[in-house]
Amino acid sequence: MNGLVYFIHAALHCCIVGYGQQVWPEPYKRLDRRPDVDPYCQALYPFCPSGDPDGRMPVMRDSDIISVFRLQTPVWEFRYGDTLGKFHVMHDAVGFASARTGRNFTLEWYELFQLGNCTFPHERASVSAPFWCNQGAACCSDGIDDVHWKQNGTLEKIGEISGEMFNEMARWVQEDNETGVYYETWTVKSDPGANSTTWFESYDCSQFVHRTYKTLLDMGAELSSQAPTCYTKIYLYSGEPLYLGDDSIFQQSSTKDLATDIKKFYHSFRSHQSVVEMIESLLEAFEKMVLEKTFYFYYNSEYWKLPMKYPYVKITYEEIPLP
Ligand SMILES: *[C@@H]1O[C@H](CO)[C@@H](O)[C@H](O)[C@H]1NC(C)=O
Ligand SMILES: *[C@@H]1O[C@H](CO)[C@@H](O)[C@H](O)[C@H]1NC(C)=O
Ligand SMILES: *[C@@H]1O[C@H](CO)[C@@H](O)[C@H](O)[C@H]1NC(C)=O
Ligand SMILES: *[C@@H]1O[C@H](CO)[C@@H](O)[C@H](O)[C@H]1NC(C)=O
Ligand SMILES: *[C@@H]1O[C@H](CO)[C@@H](O)[C@H](O)[C@H]1NC(C)=O
């Protein structure tokens, strides 16, 4: 049955590509509901430790006035030769403060098992396919830690909304959290130029913040930022991606060589416990790409082959205006 589904899926992809109707960027696939996490995936740091245990959002009185804050803090900075420049990786979140109660909240979206696990899979003896611990989720926690955001980052009030609007947004957050569950680290583009084609869009904390602003603006909120709103993007550059298939690649004898190649590609990326190990793997990935010009890319739980192009990979911190 799976084989048939795979065949139909692959055939559909071929037809779409064949008729030149492949849509780029490839749409991020949403699910009906969030699947349970495999017990193999164990978080080193608990996800959302100060959030509501049942994942509920706070409820505001409709007539309340809620201040909205743009929050940003550096995750790490790192310099690697002149090729990659200075990494400037920021984490983004949105803050809310109730005028009625004085309580405030931090809303963010991040990896359940850290960035390394969302970027590279595990090898498991009992499972033929590479194994991913790549879910991300929204976390709404009590309080805004002013010092944490202000000291080396940003804490900026960007507007006010009604309690009613907050509650409507909260319903959107829950739905978004149920249906968009896989973290995607990379943005894949044809080149660094202004007119490049985007093959795949990332799905990460800054995309969530951007979607939240857009949801509020669509409801009629007025938000504006005095400072430029910059986000970290982790880019890969490649020619048009080639669709390969899903996990069935690793189960069928007809795709055995491809399966071996993909596993070999991911083999050298060891599992990561720290950010430093994660950076080391990114650099290994970079060298591999320069040498082999191939990246086996995982998106929507499917594999694609990227014919890599100069400058291969880039981590940027660039301005993306409010929607
Ligand atoms: C990544 O996933 C592995 C496998 O579940 C786990 O052992 C490890 O703790 C995770 N890393 C982090 C930083 O959570
Ligand atoms: C989002 O989903 C995760 C995983 O199920 C859950 O832990 C979290 O509380 C949810 N967040 C919100 C704001 O609903
Ligand atoms: C959030 O609430 C705490 C505790 O009342 C307060 O110290 C902090 O300044 C508030 N932050 C914002 C941005 O409202
Ligand atoms: C801000 O940066 C300085 C210097 O890098 C560091 O010592 C300090 O711990 C940082 N503060 C926070 C809240 O991250
Ligand atoms: C991008 O495309 C536009 C419209 O086709 C053209 O006017 C512009 O010069 C291009 N810019 C670059 C950097 O190629």
UniProtKB/TrEMBL annotation:
It comes from the Eukaryota. GO terms for biological process: lysosome organization. InterPro entries: CLN5. GO terms for molecular function: hydrolase activity, acting on glycosyl bonds; palmitoyl-(protein) hydrolase activity. Keywords: Glycoprotein, Signal. Residues 1-20 form the signal peptide. One of its GO terms (cellular component) is lysosomal membrane. It catalyses: 2 1-tetradecanoyl-sn-glycero-3-phospho-(1'-sn-glycerol) = 1-tetradecanoyl-sn-glycero-3-phospho-(3'-tetradecanoyl-1'-sn-glycerol) + sn-glycero-3-phospho-(1'-sn-glycerol); 2 1-octadecanoyl-sn-glycero-3-phospho-(1'-sn-glycerol) = 1-octadecanoyl-sn-glycero-3-phospho-(3'-octadecanoyl-1'-sn-glycerol) + sn-glycero-3-phospho-(1'-sn-glycerol); 2 1-hexadecanoyl-sn-glycero-3-phospho-(1'-sn-glycerol) = 1-hexadecanoyl-sn-glycero-3-phospho-(3'-hexadecanoyl-1'-sn-glycerol) + sn-glycero-3-phospho-(1'-sn-glycerol); S-hexadecanoyl-L-cysteinyl-[protein] + H2O = L-cysteinyl-[protein] + hexadecanoate + H(+). Catalyzes the synthesis of bis(monoacylglycero)phosphate (BMP) via transacylation of 2 molecules of lysophosphatidylglycerol (LPG). BMP also known as lysobisphosphatidic acid plays a key role in the formation of intraluminal vesicles and in maintaining intracellular cholesterol homeostasis. Can use only LPG as the exclusive lysophospholipid acyl donor for base exchange and displays BMP synthase activity towards various LPGs (LPG 14:0, LPG 16:0, LPG 18:0, LPG 18:1) with a higher preference for longer chain lengths. Exhibits palmitoyl protein thioesterase (S-depalmitoylation) activity in vitro and most likely plays a role in protein S-depalmitoylation. Belongs to the CLN5 family. This is Bis(monoacylglycero)phosphate synthase CLN5. The lineage of its organism: Eukaryota, Metazoa, Chordata, Craniata, Vertebrata. The gene is LOC107549926.
